[in-house]
Design goal:
single chain, alpha/beta, six-stranded mixed β-sheet, 16 helices, 6 strands
Length: about 325
């Protein structure tokens, strides 16, 4: 069960910040007037800052681009219902990962556990001071991750796991998934073929370049402000279902600057590196894959994390640069 959860989390926590049916105070309601103005400025000229579903057309080809949320929320059911016909009438559905990629990843972890776990050398309790490790062990326990297992995780991967709020982990462990999985289920039921937009090893390739010290530093940052983390989940849910994706993403930038004990300049650098590695580089790599698919398919659905849609390096802008006409589909 833990292995399947590990695989699920790896695909579930990139492209859009992890969110779920968590309630409470929204971080957006806590920010200052100056920070709110910063958000307004950031999204004012951001390409495709709003909208979850877009239709791209070029010649006889149609590509429907859907911004997904990878973690389950009951409100996704209504969104799913509006997309069912689009999915079942497509001749190809493209996702960050299909069931085939998840199976390949699970097999790889069994044969090469060092990809996710520390198999040689000191474990995390030996790398960290006791106070920090106690915080991490407690956070892991709240997410149904045994501390002895957390101690052996690669720090980058444990950071992703701890990005799941405790209120979401129960769904993840039980296999309840977000909009991507709903789309997979509908495509399978209709017999629509699926294709991944990237190799299943992509995330490993991204994180392998970070030294163990850099990974541990990121893990420490994750532990600095659990209150902000919880408030961000609530805000992100609200902004996602308001289709206000650009503000959702930029709010994360504001939140990093608010983390106590983290130098603001370091936070800016961390966020920029994350945006380039997890979003923009992948977006640029996906475009040739999507365009190649249009050579043999006329009606394609591309369903990827909502944060991949926004900005001048987002999937939508990159397609527009290639001559596609983009039209927002209102829900």
């Amino acid at each position: 069960m833990f292995l399947r959860t590990a695989v699920t989390a790896l695909f579930a926590l990139t492209g859009t910040m992890a969110t779920a049916a968590c309630t409470g105070v929204s971080y957006l309601d806590q920010i200052s007037d100056a920070q709110r103005m910063q958000l307004d400025v950031a999204v004012a000229d951001m390409p495709f800052a709003e909208g979850l579903v877009w239709k791209a057309t070029k010649s006889a080809d149609t590509v429907t681009v859907i911004g997904t949320m990878h973690i389950y929320d009951p409100r996704l059911e209504a969104l799913r219902a509006t997309l069912t016909d689009t999915i079942t009438n497509a001749d190809l559905v493209m996702l960050e990962a299909t069931p085939e990629e998840e199976d390949k990843l699970q097999d790889m972890i069994v044969t090469d556990p060092g990809r996710l776990f520390i198999v040689d050398g000191p474990t995390l309790p030996e790398m960290l001071d006791s106070g920090t490790w106690d915080l991490i062990a407690d956070a892991a326990s709240q997410r149904s991750i045994p501390p002895f297992m957390a101690a052996k995780m690669q720090p980058w991967y444990l950071s992703l796991m701890l990005a799941v709020p405790p209120c979401a982990m129960e769904d993840m462990v039980s296999g309840v998934r977000g909009l991507d999985q709903m789309i997979i289920q509908d495509a399978e039921a209709a017999g629509v073929p699926m294709q991944a937009v990237e190799p299943f090893t992509t995330l490993f390739d991204i994180f392998k370049n970070d030294s163990i010290d850099e990974q541990v530093d990121m893990l420490r940052v994750n532990m600095l402000s659990p209150a902000i983390q919880q408030q961000m989940f609530v805000a992100m849910l609200d902004r996602y279902f308001a289709e206000d994706v650009g503000r959702l993403w930029e709010l994360s930038r504001v939140a990093i600057a608010d983390i106590p004990g983290l130098d603001p300049a370091e936070g800016v650098t961390m966020f920029a590196e994350m945006q380039e590695a997890l979003l923009e580089t992948r977006n640029r790599n996906w475009i040739p894959v999507i365009l190649a698919a249009t050579e043999t398919h006329d009606d394609i659905v591309v369903a990827v994390g909502a944060a991949h849609l926004i900005g001048d390096q987002g999937v939508l802008q990159l397609m527009q640069n290639d001559g596609w006409t983009l039209t927002r589909v209102t829900q």
